[in-house]
Design a protein that fits this description.
The structure is a single chain. α1 crosses α2, α2 packs across α3 and α10 crosses α11. The chain has 14 helices and 16 strands. It has 475 residues and is an alpha/beta fold.
Length: 475
């Protein structure tokens, strides 16, 4: 099959190292670059050259494991379902703890090539500091497999634990990779879409508590100087409506070129996802696909969305690393997970290049300090001498339906809303609609209307900080 240049080079380097006596190979490639195809072709060449007998792949989710199995089967033209006559199987890391001695005996009887997708999920340089998955790899695969291949797009762990089977440089403790293909490389080769990250902020925030009023000029100052949490911001109805309305407008524009383009909203909880889906239906008359860890058929739900022309999917812990939905081009980061690994993996969901006319990739997020830090680090990964960071203030649209006097209310604490003496009012149209069509009113009943003590009123126009990581002039 036709490989991308980086894939062919990585395979050549890996084969050379294996033939020269190395047993492990760590490949770092930016999310969306095509690690699955590279690993499948490497497995194919090892099988064709009679260097291995079996191939086993481990992945972080059943959907990714399924995709990997299909890729291995398609490229090798061999069976990869673990049944009689198969050349291997594609499993999840969760299954590691439940494999019996019959399975592990394969490593003594055959030359086994093991692929670890998103290896950063598996921690441990030894049994003392290993997590459950890392422990199984150390006990049953390390020094027993003929060859191992580790793949990652984010070669670190939030807990700073060592990644299993990996070597680190001292004293910097940076991981040692055998092959690196970063975002800058992918942009030069037209392998990934150019990302644009838009941070939504507010310039005039007022916190009312026990008749005391404090004002803040940004979400950053609000979070640093008050008891309001980031969870309150992303769960606030007006924040949600503003973010998804902006994203919906962008997606609508993209779909004029790419009719099947889609958007992803990463929510913080099942209730949060349900809330967002209700707002999407009420304000835009759009049905959203909701997929969470509670669904028993989540893999089927994602597969169905992948091959449909539906616009929006809302995920809680189900669409992140390795999930391949190339038609995703817009993303709303509305989760309370604020690690750099999760941020980059989420961004990676919209970076996979396709044959479509429009290749925009746009992420919306609140202007939370940590998220902004990660966004600027993504920018620094792109070697481009230009003013690639832009700051823009959103203008009110559609008959100025946003104005400086509209209030956005975030509630927190432990007192029921009905005990407040102050009447709370929410404006009906406090966001930028995608168009000027007549919009339905939202029923005033949401999960935010329970148990609170503080009232936060946010006035003024939202503003956007557009981090143009694009270099569109390179296109």
């Amino acid at each position: 099959m036709k490989l991308r240049q980086w894939q062919a080079e990585c395979i050549d380097v890996a084969l050379t190292k294996y033939i020269n006596g190395a047993t492990h190979f760590l490949a770092l490639a930016t999310p969306g670059a095509g690690k699955t195809v590279m690993a499948s072709e490497l497995a194919n060449q090892l099988l064709d050259n009679n260097l291995v007998d079996l191939v086993i792949c481990f992945s972080p989710s059943s959907l990714v494991a399924r995709d990997f199995g299909e890729s291995l089967q398609g490229i090798t033209q061999m069976q990869f379902d673990g049944k009689m006559g198969a050349k291997g199987n594609s499993l999840t890391y969760q299954s590691l703890q439940y494999l019996d001695d019959t399975f592990w005996q394969l490593f003594h009887r055959f030359r086994v090539f093991v692929i670890f997708d998103e290896i950063h999920h598996c921690a441990g340089s030894n049994l003392e500091n290993a997590n459950a998955w890392g422990e199984q790899i150390i006990l049953n695969i390390q020094n027993k497999a003929k060859y191992t291949l580790a793949l990652t797009g984010t070669p670190w762990r939030s807990d700073e634990a060592p990644i299993v089977l990996s070597n680190y440089f001292h004293p910097t403790n940076k991981i040692s990779c055998d092959f690196v293909y970063g975002l800058a490389d992918a942009l030069r080769d037209d392998v990934c879409r150019i990302p644009q990250i838009i941070a939504v902020d507010n310039s005039n925030i007022s916190v009312v508590n026990d008749e005391e009023i404090k004002t803040f000029g940004s979400f950053k100052s609000l979070l640093a100087q008050s008891t309001i949490s980031y969870q309150h911001i992303i769960e606030n109805e007006k924040v949600i409506k503003y973010v998804i309305s902006s994203a919906h407008k962008e997606l609508k524009n993209i779909r004029t070129f790419n009719p099947d383009a889609a958007g992803l909203i990463v929510a913080s909880s099942v209730d949060h996802a349900t809330k967002i889906a209700a707002l999407m239906k009420t304000y835009f008359n759009e049905n959203s696909t909701v997929v969470t860890y509670r669904e028993s058929d989540s893999t089927s739900i994602i597969q169905q969305f992948r091959h449909s022309a539906s616009k929006w999917i809302i995920s809680v812990g189900m669409i992140s690393e390795g999930t391949n939905i190339p038609r995703l081009q817009v993303c709303c980061h509305l989760t309370n997970i604020k690690t750099e690994m999760h941020f980059r993996q989420t961004l990676g969901r919209i970076l996979r290049i396709t044959n479509s006319t429009n290749q925009e990739a746009i992420m919306y997020m609140p202007a939370e300090p940590k998220l902004l830090e990660y966004a600027y680090r993504v920018k620094q990964d792109i070697p481009f001498e230009a003013d690639v960071v832009k700051f823009e203030t959103m203008k009110a649209e559609v008959n100025d339906c946003i104005n400086d006097n509209e209030t956005l209310t975030i509630l927190s604490g432990g007192t029921n809303l009905s005990s407040f003496k102050t009447k709370l009012q929410l404006s009906e149209l406090d966001y930028v609609p995608a168009d000027s069509e007549q919009l339905n009113e939202v029923p005033d009943k949401h999960f935010l209307t329970t148990s609170y003590e503080q009232v936060v009123n946010i006035f003024g126009r939202f503003k956007q900080e557009a981090i143009a990581l694009g270099l569109s002039e390179l296109r």
